[in-house]
What does this fold into?
Amino acid sequence: MVLFKPHSKKTSNDENKQQKPLKDIMQQACKSSDFHQFSPVGKIQISYYKSQINEDKINRYLIPQLQKNIESINKLDDIKNIIPFDDVKITNDTRNVETNLIKGFVIIQLKNIENDFILVNVNNGQMGHRLNNDTENEFSVVGPKVGFVENIDINIHLLRQQVAVTKLIIEEIKIGTVSNTRVAIAYLDGVTNPRQIETVKQRLNNINLDVVFDSSLLDQIISDNSNTMFPLLLSSERIDRVTYAILMGQVAVLSDGSPYVISGPSTILDFFISPEDYFLPWIIGSFFRIARICSVFFSIFATSLYVAVLTYHFEVIPEKLLEPLVMSRANVPFPPVMEVIFLEITIELLREAGARLPAKIGQTLGIVGGIVIGQATVEAALTSSILLIIVALSALASFTTPIFKMANTIRVLRFPFIFLASVWGGLGIIAGVLLLMGHLLRLKSLGTPYLVPLFPFRMGNFADSIIRSSFLYTNKRNTSLKPMSLKRYEPSKDKEDINHEES
It folds into this structure.
């Protein structure tokens, strides 16, 4: 595993060992216009960042209590017993003061005591956070619509609502030499394999970044292989998906400021499973899951097969299809590979433009732009109408992937296969498949093979992989995760109705 280290860990630790004098910290803070420092009473000094704290708590509870009991205050313990706040601590560590000051703590000092301070948590944690927590990118028609938000405390609260047991363990660390971002590890005690927990902890503790903007950065850094386009850890904004991962014995990582939670170890089939599969009858859910997996193969190989057949393998085209295919390409001056590349790039441009524009404009651009450009390219004889249909279906098939990161991988995979097909035809596609399988066989997620249960073959894990079996047969966790407890629940096969006696 390759970790990104922008600067030496040893240098960072040496800097942290040297405590700054409080005077230097305050002088630096005073340069900011939102930093306030005053004395509500003679012998007490209060310091805080106005933009980070709840001023109502200070004006209504903190200052009146200090003014009311000023005569009885002789030491810091007296202040701690007077003020009506839970998160109050006395410290002499100026590093702790500097870190908590910017996080929304108030520093209280007695002027006759220089080396000890009181830290009071009056952070306004709700400021700036969105109130709506509907899932936007992983929407489903059936099932809950509630997702995570950018506040880690709210996310932990939402997670504990779903997993309401004391076995749910939350361990918190801080990452980022500048941001001091709160990162939480969530797992089920007695279920999740301790080796996987320790692996996640070790990889997170080895991270040495200045700012952690999103959990996606953590995803890339703690992954087993950073030189692959395949996502090795599942990233989701849905509470039900993360809850299911934890119940199965996986480890979840939450980052403050990010609405996405990453979980692992993950397999390649996990990225094609939609939570909606469990909210539908198992036969319907299995059908949609198989259709989803088949659409991935169609999306990757449809255009490359078109190039291979029209360039090298005319003999495989049925006679009835040969005439319309020739007619559609009669006036096209470009070889098949140029047609395909032109249309694929056009589709990608439309998709990127639609994603970057406002929602209403983006939808209009996608529909109108696709129709207008498609019709114009066919009439201008830049491409054939049959290829236009194939490319459009290929783009639609890629949209069926529930996880956006895997959908991006599928979009990129099409281009190497197109080039291989243009050079060696069907042999090039086969060579590409062999190279892709060799790469997938080497991938691991937190030490677990990426292709489980396909390779290594695990028959017991097929109950909830390619198909979604009945709940009678999905009561066991995946053996590839090596959970401490294999069974999730005891299925009841008795369905006897209560017979009401007729009066």
Q: What stands out?
A: DSSP finds 16 helices and twelve strands in the chain. Residues 1-17 have pLDDT under 50 and may be disordered. Residues 43 and 111 are 5 Å apart (CA to CA).
